[in-house]
Design brief:
Aspartate Aminotransferase, domain 1; binds pyridoxal-5'-phosphate; 11 helices; alpha/beta; Aspartate Aminotransferase, domain 2
Length: 359
């Protein structure tokens, strides 16, 4: 039985290989998960949700909707939920793309955008992002064609760790043709220093922007698979026509609602991460490596050669530490490292020092 023709050209999405040798103490820093866990109030909420489990989830996710709307001062009716924000990325591609239509992202934009565009049969056009600096609005605009339906911006960017200021996002939005939808994926927005963070939810008002968020990162709930978006009403309506019913489980919605109400935990994780990030960058520099500035819970590090990069990756894995190669972006001399606790990052720095000493 043959599927739709474009599916034959696809390959499965390659998740991180987190295998380590038997007997090693695992330290998995390859998926930008939170090593601080989730708020304690989440565990209490989950324990109480047992009574609701014989029943299907609330189709409107009202408790979670209210919790987010209240905490973030947003309109509840403009919220939409997905099985992680990747689910919403896929659904947007299903809505707007098909063979003959294109989407634009930056050269080092989140790799899953390419996957989702391919799933829908669309074509991804990549805008150059020289020297791994923040995305270039001018290059993105130059890449847009008459058949372009979607522009994806991961902000802050994965794997680069840097971000575009709101003024640049507005310039992009204002310069795009009216019938192109700007998808702002803000999976790591909560990690940006408060004095630099400028929310973009209000940009949804004009109808050609959607903003995506997730509970998988700062909230420490990657296993629950809850993402959400702030969408124009018209697009919420279209999404309702293709979304699987009740795609958020009761347990996941309960956990996410409790998590978002605990903004002190978010503050705490952001502050701790910033300190750990600075210390770890210094440790890498002291080893003669080249960390890139980051405002997120991960960091790209440049090595002197592709051989060094593979050698370091293998050495760490042999010692139980898994970090992420980024050769899928053509970055064969970089590795991406999730920020764990201070002790965990000391262990990584120590292991990299040992690798340097023996290589
Ligand atoms: C930029 C970006 N967006 C979205 C996601 C996916 O998040 P979720 O777990 O909500 O599907 C990730 C995960 O790594 C990411 O890096």
């Amino acid at each position: 039985m043959k599927p739709r023709p474009h599916v034959l050209g696809l390959t499965p999405y390659k998740l991180s290989d987190n295998s380590i040798p038997d007997g090693q103490r695992p330290l998995i820093l390859s998926q930008n998960e939170s090593m601080f866990g989730c708020s304690p109030v989440v565990n209490e909420a989950i324990a109480q949700a047992g009574a609701d489990l014989p029943f299907y989830p609330d189709k409107d996710n009202r408790k979670l909707r209210q919790a987010i709307a209240h905490t973030m001062q947003l309109e509840p009716d403009k919220l939409i939920f997905g099985l992680g924000s990747t689910d919403l990325i896929v659904q947007l591609c299903m809505l707007y793309l098909e063979p003959g239509r294109t989407a634009v992202a930056s050269e080092y934009g989140y790799i899953y955008f390419r996957k989702a565009v391919g799933m829908a049969g669309g074509e991804m056009i990549l805008a150059a992002q020289p020297d791994l600096t923040a995305k270039s609005v001018d290059n993105i605009l130059a890449a847009v064609r008459p058949d372009t339906m979607l522009v994806f911006i991961d902000n802050p960017g994965n794997p680069t760790g840097n971000f575009l200021p709101r003024s640049e996002i507005i310039r992009l939005r204002d310069s795009l043709p009216e019938d192109v939808l700007l998808v702002l994926d803000e999976a790591y927005a909560e990690f940006v220093d408060l004095d630099q963070y400028e929310p973009c939810f209000d940009l949804v008002e004009r109808g050609n922007v959607v903003v995506l968020r997730t509970f998988s990162k700062v909230y420490g709930l990657a296993g629950m698979r809850v993402g959400w978006g702030y969408f124009p009403t018209e697009i919420i309506d279209y999404m309702g026509r293709i979304r699987p019913a009740q795609n958020i489980t009761t347990l996941a919605a309960t956990a996410a609602a409790a998590a978002v109400r605990d903004q002190e935990q978010v503050y705490d994780v952001r502050e701790k991460t910033a300190v750990i990030r600075t210390n770890f960058a210094n440790q890498l520099s002291d080893l003669g490596l080249h960390p890139l500035p980051s405002c997120t819970n991960f960091m790209l590090c440049r090595f002197d050669s592709a051989e060094d990069t593979t050698s370091a990756l293998n050495y760490l894995r042999a010692n139980g530490i898994v970090i992420r190669p980024v050769d899928v972006y053509g970055l064969t001399d970089h590795l991406r490292i999730t920020m764990g606790t201070a002790e965990q990052m000391d262990r990584v720095a120590q292991a990299l020092g040992d690798w340097k000493a023996q290589s």
